[in-house]
Amino acid sequence: MHPTRKKRLTIVLFLLAGIAIAVGLTTYALRQNINLFYDPSQIAAGDAPQDVRIRAGGMVEEGSVQRDPESLKVEFRVTDFNSSVLVEYTGILPDLFAEGQGVVAMGRLNGNGRFVADQVLAKHDENYMPPEVAEALEKASAGAHKAGDSTGSESAY
Amino acid sequence: MYPELGQFALILALLLAVLLSVVPLVGSVTGRDTLQAYARPLSAGLFVFIAIAFGILTHAFVTDDFSVAYVANNSNSMLPWYYKFSAVWGGHEGSLLLWILMLAGWTLAVAIFSRRLPSVMIAQVLSVMGIVCVGFLLFIIMTSNPFERMLPNVPADGADLNPLLQDFGLIIHPPMLYMGYVGFSVAFAFAIAALINGRLDAAWARWSRPWTTVAWAFLSLGIALGSWWAYYELGWGGWWFWDPVENASLLPWLSGTALMHSLAVTEKRGVFKSWTVLLAIVTFSLSLLGTFLVRSGVLTSVHAFASDPERGTFLLALLAITIVSSLALYAFRAPVVHVRARYGSLSREIFLLLNNVLLVAATLLVMVGTLYPLVLDYLDMGRLSIGEPFFNLTFSPLALAAGLLLGAGIFSRWKKTDGGWLGRKLLWPLAISVVATAAVMVTYGAFKPWAFAGCFVAIWVTVATFWDLWDKSSSRKGRLQGLKRQSRSYYGMVLGHLGLAITMAGATVASNYGIERDVRMVPGDTAIVGDYQVLFTDIGERRGQNFTAQYGSFDVSLDGQYVATLHPEKRQYQVQRNVMTEAAIDAGLFRDVFVAIGERITDDAWAIRIQYKPLVRWLWLGALFMAAGGFLAIADRRYRIRERASDRQGVESGRRGDVAEAMS
User: Fold this and answer.
1) What's the pTM?
2) Fewest CB atoms less than 10 Å from the CB: which of B352, B382, B391, B581?
């Protein structure tokens, strides 16, 4: 083969191999590390998988935060005003975590319908609402209005 | 009165930008020197009027003019004066104005420092910069006017600057980052000008090299500052989150690094021309993509202030116009000349090509991870997030491979390198690196595969760099003379590569050997992290200028020896009622001890985060080295000397390049 063509072929093969490796790695890593979002209604309906790392979000229910005085364990309910899910977390909560505020938690659902979070994210400022949470609340409140449930009106966000 | 003048200045600047983007370009196409000569004065005028607008906005902040909506939303009379100053770019409108000021600044810099370029080239480069300026001036005037008034209902006081942004890091982070982002517009303008007049040659590469390098150096500093700020202010001790906003700045950095290296090949050997042009276009497009991601509000995170769909659409249109028109130009004008320069399958050219392949792969990877969730969300195919593990898993192997190749590539020669010779050359540096890495593992007391790989590559790059310096500096006149003989751009490269090694070492050790503990503590308790004991002595109250704080006191000691007293705070800002955690850090070259106060658990018990972070400073130290290397490289004498030579030959050099290629 002509030396120039041979060289060009080597380069092309190099590139193809590189691209193949990159694509393979990417798809593999994507499959492992995609975290789907579920709102409390979906979790209550049993749509969310168990023991898979997912994200869940909604509002922290008023009066639901229970802190263990002897450790960093804390429990609270996250609601979309239709259903709620019990979240269990051990660690330091973000500065802006508070009852009645939007949060997103990362973690796994265990067998008892509890959400064991390894990370809790709260909104960054007064006007910020995690987009998933806003959407989940909107969906829940639309559903509630249809059902003529008055609790839906609380979620005037 | 003043704000209206500011707006007027912006409109005048727009008119000048329109003139700049038309007149010299027409002059260059029709060959009329008089029209080309307008490029420099128009650039100067553009800069002056934008600087006036920026000065007026700053004046409004400093004098608390809350009749200006932007000032009212982002400042407060109680804000310390230096934050009033930095609040100018604390929100969407102002940071966009800063962006444009930088663009005009770069345009002016090109006008001033390119006296030796042929006037056709300079006219076209400045015109392209003018076109970019028109786009962004239209954007700010039509959608994001910083001088909009709230009349007649002037608020008594402002809504205050977001407390997260009230910080030294945030005073300098955006200007540095924008200097880098916008700086790539120069490389872009040179590429477009070269495509227009079909002069893709070594001279073109030499002209755009220093501009690319300096933009890259600023971007490196900007990214490092952002990471440093996140570490002490935002992240509870994390330094990189693969957050879309961070990725937005990493993307142009990665492709800019590739561009810098391929420009070197194009300058020295006259090959990879089309690839280099494409990279210049891609790099600036990624800067625009970054601006779009951060400014349009498609991401909702700390940095995304705006959430106005009008703005997003405008920016997306700008992005699309830039990409489509420059790629169309590329398709029509990219060199069809067959490259005749020869290089072997083992040569410096090939090593740099592999470097480019890896960097582009990394760019694509980060782009996929960043855009995939956005695209799916836009298509209503579900909400998902791609976590840090994805990026760590895919980015790390690429970074390690790039580092391994870098060490070997340093020794390789242009055109052809003998495989056996290279192998023998690499033997000792390899052996030294393995032994040194093993020593590091012993020091930190645990073998971890990823830590070994990362440390090995960092040490390998360092050893290879110094080995090469030693080889090159051997001289009959003595070592010192030999060291003096090396060019500044060579030392720039040495510093840049050492910087990469330092950053890699910092990232590897900090993430593998760092210790993080969240504990419940009451005053009097002691927590242990690594070899350090942290005693919680007291917690009280403290008042700042615009906040009140819970003020903790912790004594840090190492094996019973007192090291430092740390005072982390939990601040409540008075205007926005936000709570902010201020961590306290005992910083050192080899380790940081980090204490932050979490929430109150009972009356006297607090949740406390304590961290031991070995080598974490190296992350940012490495970036300083890289930036210093960039600045040193552009101070090289040859840019001045050779530019003079190429100026004399003027337009001839284009043909000369082809001849040289044909001959080699």
Assistant:
1) 0.90
2) B382
